[in-house]
């Protein structure tokens, strides 16, 4: 293929072309629908933001900010970054538009591309697609459970089954600093290499996420945040788990979970699919109670998630499920001559006004090739019109699955087609 084309898409960035693109839309819209059912409104934000927003919001020491951002200077000397994630931008917009001064919680959802300069591999892309949501301004464990249950329901509605939800609590601003010291004291007793020791100084939690077996082994006895929660954080976490139980959302506790973004507090979670190899996270999120204040807004709490559309598609494929093979049109019109075409173009437009999806054989084609195109389109009906039909004021309506053909009056064809397709009159 590559020797046939002058350009190929940028490295590590997938295209979604028909027919697979239908699955992309189904997954994106399915996950978004789950958010709509829980009262989240759509928010549409720019894909570029002031670089400082991510440095301040996501954390300078995270890989996402320190290594993976697509940053550039525009012609006005502003330093901008292609958004690597959605939460910081939502906070910026909520503060800028004063949504935080209205009724709380502010419940928003979004879908779109995010950009991370990671090493591409199966399921890890440089432009990734997420459906996300954020609930801002109410610190209620029932809301945490709702957010998690929306993600769980979204995946299940698409037919996904073999995934697990991992949850933990990363503590609050009373217990986390104390735990951080405890963890650092422990880590500094270990024979860590220089780089890991530096990491322990800047962000000790991240050392627990080290994938190297020797570091994993060394840190097996590390103190865990879950054993050092403040009474408030503990009570919050217990209630979230109670709600999840009542909602019938299965979960496992993963006390060693470390997220790649620095803003998380209290409830934190990940959805993991084992059919995906190394890039197994199909979604993740949590509370970020200090983020809004950190970005210059009111001290409001927040919780949300980001679900990976690309990885959900791969997970469905790993389970042998395809979500969508819906045909692209209901009716395919086959004109046999120019006058017939002029009439069918008009009929097609009239049917579309009734919500019927119609395509037409454009160009000069033989009847045989046009009928083949009709079959390929997946349409239920073909409308065949020749000069003689036109003179008679009639149209042939062919049911493509059976080959049955009926002659109907042109002036009555819309009613006939609607009835055949069981489309109600509007
Ligand atoms: P995140 O865990 O960084 O969270 O990303 C969420 C999901 O996006 C991941 O679970 C994964 O499915 C997908 N994803 C991330 N990176 C890639 C990649 N390189 N290729 C393909 N898929 C990827 C966030 O972004 C947070 N903003 C989520 C959040 C919202 N937390 C609170 N509110």
From TrEMBL:
Its EC number is 6.1.1.21. It is found in: Cytoplasm. Residues 35-327 form the Aminoacyl-transfer RNA synthetases class-II family profile domain. The keyword Nucleotide-binding applies. GO terms for molecular function: histidine-tRNA ligase activity. InterPro entries: aa-tRNA-synth_II (IPR006195), aa-tRNA-synth_II/BPL/LPL (IPR045864), Anticodon-bd (IPR004154), Anticodon-bd_dom_sf (IPR036621), His-tRNA-ligase (IPR015807), HisRS-like_core (IPR041715), HisRS/HisZ (IPR004516), HisRS_anticodon (IPR033656). Pfam families: HGTP_anticodon, tRNA-synt_His. Keywords: Aminoacyl-tRNA synthetase, ATP-binding, Cytoplasm, Ligase, Nucleotide-binding, Protein biosynthesis. It catalyses: tRNA(His) + L-histidine + ATP = L-histidyl-tRNA(His) + AMP + diphosphate + H(+). It comes from the Bacteria. It is an enzyme of class 6 (ligase). Homodimer. Belongs to the class-II aminoacyl-tRNA synthetase family. HAMAP family: His_tRNA_synth. This is Histidine--tRNA ligase.
């Amino acid at each position: 293929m590559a020797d046939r084309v002058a350009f190929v898409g940028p490295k590590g960035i997938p295209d979604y072309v028909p027919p697979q693109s239908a699955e992309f839309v189904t997954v994106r819209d399915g996950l978004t629908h789950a958010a709509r059912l829980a009262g989240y409104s759509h928010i549409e934000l720019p894909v570029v933001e002031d670089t400082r927003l991510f440095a301040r919001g996501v954390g300078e020491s995270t890989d996402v900010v320190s290594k993976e951002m697509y940053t550039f200077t525009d012609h006005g000397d502003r330093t901008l970054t292609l958004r690597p994630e959605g939460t910081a931008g939502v906070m910026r917009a909520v503060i800028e538009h004063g949504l935080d001064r209205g009724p709380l919680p502010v419940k928003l959802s979004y879908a779109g591309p995010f950009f991370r300069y990671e090493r591409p591999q199966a399921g890890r892309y440089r432009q990734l697609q997420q459906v996300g949501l954020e609930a801002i301004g109410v610190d209620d464990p029932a809301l945490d459970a709702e957010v998690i249950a929306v993600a769980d329901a979204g995946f299940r509605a698409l037919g996904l089954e073999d995934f697990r939800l991992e949850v933990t609590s990363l503590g609050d601003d009373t217990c986390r600093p104390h735990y951080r010291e405890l963890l650092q004291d422990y880590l500094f007793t270990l024979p860590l290499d220089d780089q890991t020791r530096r990491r322990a100084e800047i962000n000790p939690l991240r050392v627990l996420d080290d994938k190297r077996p020797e570091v994993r082994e060394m840190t097996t006895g590390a103190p865990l945040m879950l054993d050092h929660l403040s009474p408030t954080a503990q009570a919050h976490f217990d209630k979230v788990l109670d709600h999840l139980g009542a909602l019938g959302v299965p979960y496992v506790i993963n006390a060693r979970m470390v997220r790649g973004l620095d803003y998380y507090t209290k409830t934190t979670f990940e959805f993991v699919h084992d059919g995906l190899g190394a890039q197994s996270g199909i979604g993740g999120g949590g509370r970020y109670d200090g983020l809004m204040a950190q970005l210059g807004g009111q001290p409001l709490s927040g919780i949300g998630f980001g679900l990976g559309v690309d990885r959900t598609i791969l997970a469905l494929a790993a389970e042998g499920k395809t979500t969508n093979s819906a045909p692209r049109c209901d009716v395919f019109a086959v004109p046999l001559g120019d006058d017939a075409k002029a009439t069918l173009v008009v009929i097609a437009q009239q049917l579309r006004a009734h919500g019927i999806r119609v395509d037409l054989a454009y160009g000069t084609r033989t009847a045989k090739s046009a009928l083949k195109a009709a079959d390929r389109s997946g349409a239920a009906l073909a409308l065949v019109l020749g000069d003689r039909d036109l003179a008679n004021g009639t149209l042939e309506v062919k049911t493509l699955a059976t080959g049955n053909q009926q002659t109907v009056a042109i002036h009555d064809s819309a009613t006939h087609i609607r009835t055949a397709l069981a489309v109600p009159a509007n």
